[in-house]
Write a structure and sequence with these properties.
Elements (H helix, E strand, L loop, with lengths): L3 H10 L4 E5 L2 E4 H17 L7 E5 L4 H12 L3 E4 L6 H11 L3 E4 L7 H5 L6 E3 L7 H7 L14 E6 L9 E5 H15 L6 E4 L6 H14 L2 E4 L5 H10 L4 E4 L1 H7 L5 H4 L5 E4 L6 H11 L3 E7 L4 E5 L12 E2 L4 E5 L12 E6 L11 H7 E2 L2 E10 L5 E6 L4 E3 L2 E3 L1 H8 L7 E9 L3 E9 L8 H9 L10 E4 L13 H8 L2
Parallel strand pairs: 1-10, 3-4, 3-5, 4-7, 5-6, 9-10, 11-12, 12-13, 24-25
Antiparallel strand pairs: 1-2, 7-8, 13-14, 14-15, 16-17, 17-19, 18-19, 19-20, 21-22, 23-24
Length: 496
């Protein structure tokens, strides 16, 4: 088994179908598959063998895609990290996984020599490195035979978002990814008629598996951008008739400010949000402006994306849906006992999509995966119909004066206030209360709104201890490159 066969099959049946659009360039599936085979052939000729690690440390590009699939065709393991990761963080990865090769952005040339010293015989693929992408293609054979792998062999290593600490490398097998791909394509009703917008970083599970690999699996097209640029994104959506809009909550919030929103996205049939929970007020506002639902699923790096899905035919606002095919979800207390519908506890997951563990980290693996069940670290409940609702991250829960406050509940209400564009509620150290509930707010207008107005608004709707004791107005909230809010950064910055 090798998930690179998905690309080969699509190229066989839909050779002239557009696979990737990058700027003015359009690449067909025949060309895409052939160039990935050439990359695999060149890597094999350079000594890359089955099971070897190859690091991808570069921004979104067609070259990234071709090298990624080339690595997997060769039977090697793609280790994907953020292009924004500093050289020191990358150095730790190199020491940990001992890669044989690395794709690096041209802007990283100054770091190459120091990185080479961290890994033996490291081949750097870059215009300023040992070998360029163009030379890989020219030197390889288009008829390279994909290396067969065991379904349990590691296909890719993706790093957790790092919102609560040092990122960990989740090892995803060929089976893990294939199981998740089937669910994404099935539930989203994806086909070769679709074109998906991808500006989110390809190192992240959302873009890499949920968007990119699912399009390859079903024969759709990928409209690729190196990063989020509002003007370019909207123009691209109109020009290339994007049907599938994949974004994070922040993007949807900012797009709602467009006066002619529905006209600008008239080709879109399907909207999906991930990386962070979407406030129900935003979902309702988007539906009112566009007539389109924002679909959500529940998933994470460790689950190769999809765990649950909120269905077309029975969409429940506020929920992340019911379990995907062959996936089990249980709500458990801290002792591991299963809870009844309606009871809040930790979300635990079992299925063929669950990672086999973290790279070279047996302690974290043992803590997260117990008897084949993944402990998500998320708090939620399941209703009588089997729909999953996320309450909050267990680690984000605030204990103030002995009372538990779940930030998401407060944030949901804040999003209904006209003076709130974005918000984050965190607990800051407090001598009297232990933790002080604090709201960080981005306002849609210049200048600071009246905090007393917002406080009174919340007091009418929340029990007293849940109302923030302080309001901090900021220009922006810290996020990782996938758009996930970094509450840890807020706490570090504003810690007394």
């Amino acid at each position: 088994m090798n998930i690179a066969d998905n690309l080969a099959r699509t190229a066989q049946f839909l050779p002239d179908q557009v696979a990737v659009i990058e700027g003015d360039r359009q690449i067909t599936y025949r060309q895409f598959n052939e160039e990935c085979s050439r990359v695999a052939s060149s890597l094999a000729a350079s000594g890359i063998q089955a099971g070897d690690h190859v690091v991808l440390w570069a921004p979104n590009s067609y070259a990234w895609l071709a090298i990624y699939f080339g690595v997997i065709k060769a039977g090697a393991v793609a280790v994907t990290i953020s292009h924004l990761a500093p050289a020191d963080e990358l150095a730790r990865v190199l020491v940990d996984c001992r890669p044989k090769a690395m794709l690096a952005g041209d802007d990283k040339a100054g770091d190459f020599q120091a990185l080479k010293e961290k890994a033996d015989a490291l081949l750097i693929i870059s215009n300023h490195g040992d070998m360029s992408f163009e030379s890989l293609i020219k030197g390889g054979a288009k008829n390279f035979k994909t290396v067969d792998r065991n379904r349990h062999d590691t296909c890719a290593v993706l790093f957790t978002g790092g919102t609560t600490g040092i990122p960990k490398g989740a090892m995803l097998s060929h089976e893990n990814i294939q199981a998740s791909l089937f669910n994404v394509v099935h539930f989203e009703r994806s086909s070769q008629e679709d074109r998906a917008l991808c500006f989110l970083p390809l190192n992240h599970v959302f873009a890499q598996i949920h968007i990119m690999q699912s399009m390859v699996y079903c024969g759709g097209g990928l409209v690729l951008h190196p990063a989020y640029d509002p003007g370019k994104i909207l123009d691209s959506m109109e020009r290339h008739r994007v049907s599938n809009l994949y974004a994070v909550p922040t993007v949807y919030i900012r797009m709602l400010a467009l006066r002619n929103l529905r006209e600008r996205i008239k080709s879109v049939r399907y909207c999906f949000s991930a990386a962070a929970s979407m406030a129900t007020e935003i979902v309702r506002a988007w539906k009112g402006r566009t007539g389109l639902a924002i679909h959500e699923a529940y998933g994470m790096t460790e689950s190769a994306s999809m765990v649950t899905y909120n269905h077309y035919y029975c969409h429940v606002v506020g929920s992340v849906g019911t379990p995907a095919s062959l996936v089990e979800v249980q709500i458990r207390d801290m002792e591991g006992l299963r809870l009844k519908p309606g009871q809040e506890g930790e979300i635990c997951i079992h299925g063929p999509n669950i990672t086999k563990g973290y790279m070279n980290n047996p302690l974290e693996t043992a803590a997260a995966i117990q008897n084949g069940w993944l402990r998500s670290g998320d708090l939620g409940y399941v209703d009588d119909r089997g729909y999953l609702f996320i309450v909050d991250r267990l680690k984000d829960m605030i204990i103030t004066g002995g009372e538990n406050v779940y930030p998401r509940e407060v944030e949901e209400l804040l999003y209904t206030h006209p003076d709130v564009l974005e918000c984050a509620v965190v607990g800051l150290p407090d001598k009297e209360y232990g933790e002080r509930v604090t709201a960080f707010i981005v306002s849609p207008e210049k200048g600071e709104p009246d905090p007393d107005n917002i406080r009174c608004f919340l007091k009418e709707r929340l029990i007293g201890f849940k109302v923030p004791k302080a309001f901090v107005f900021v220009d922006d909230l810290p996020k990782n490159n996938a758009g996930k809010l970094l509450k840890r950064k807020i706490k570090e910055q504003y810690k007394p």
